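Batch 3, record 17
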Amino acid sequence: MVNIIWGSFIVIGIVYGLITGNIAAINNEIIESGNAAFNLIKDMTPLLVIWMGLMKIAEESGLIKKIAKIMTPLLSQLFPKIPKNHESIGYIASNIAVNMAGLGSAATPFGLKAMAKLQELNPDKKRATSSMITFLVLNTGGVTIIPTTIISLRLTYGSLSPTIVIPACIIATLSAGVGGLTLDYFIRRKNDNT
Amino acid sequence: MTTLSFLLLPLLVLYIIFYGFKKKVNIYDEFLVGAKEGLITTFKIIPNIVAMIFAINILIKSNIISDMFIFLEPYLHKINLASDILPMTFLRSISGTSTLAIMVNIFDNYGPDSTMGLLASVIQGSSDTTLYVVALYYGSIGVTKNRYALSVGLFSDLCGIIASFLLVYLLF
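Prediction for the assembled complex:
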């Protein structure tokens, strides 16, 4: 599916650019898009390095295990395939907590670490496990209690009540999460292998 | 409430260090071990990020997504909606930076407290950039067979967007 999406984005973009005579912009993008990617990486790298370092401390001190122990009863319903008190649960829970606070970019290192821990449980290293997919839904459709970027931008653009959108944002992400998890549940039940 | 969210990270760092001290971990050495792992992870995901941004930016710069909705303009006016916002629904799963740019543009043209501004805010807050997260998370561990991950992720986004429209029309 990634093949199809990736390829058709490029084909559609270039063909449509040719038809509408907008090809100069596309040409420019082919040259420049690498820059945009590297800027993103430049922003992300220090954050990853710092948090992966801190998380290593948390792992060695047993903090991640402790979080996993606390969160296992709650999350084992969603992740029946993860062994009890496994460290991945600790990272998944931390990822969700940081996401909830609206600190999306700081949540990424926890998410990556959770994936690495889930990969340890994976018998086929090239193939995503059902736990990985459930985690993905929880991550993208995860509830943001405080959408920090949106609120600060609303404030910047002169909103009289920048936080008025919070309840709607919460219900909207909740719908996304519940919708995604429901579909995930039915797919998982249908082909119950890893 | 936003201050509360800014408190979280400093307190988390404090707790991690404190707990490390308590358990007598060589915190500095362990930090370096983890930091090195972090650097390797970033290095591993560079190709995935470059590949995704390459394709996404070509699609966006061709303007096809914004053009797609222009013909709907006359109908949209009847329900108090401008066509500017519709590309957001398509782009939400693909590119977080471009939906953010559209949101800012809408704040600029209609104001953040207008129906359009509120709708843009809620759509932006409804989900994360699924395609990017898939590329990043699966790329970092070398998983190439995503199975039904994208279908479920995109369906989740769709639910969020439908909910955004319903909520804004019901609540505001």
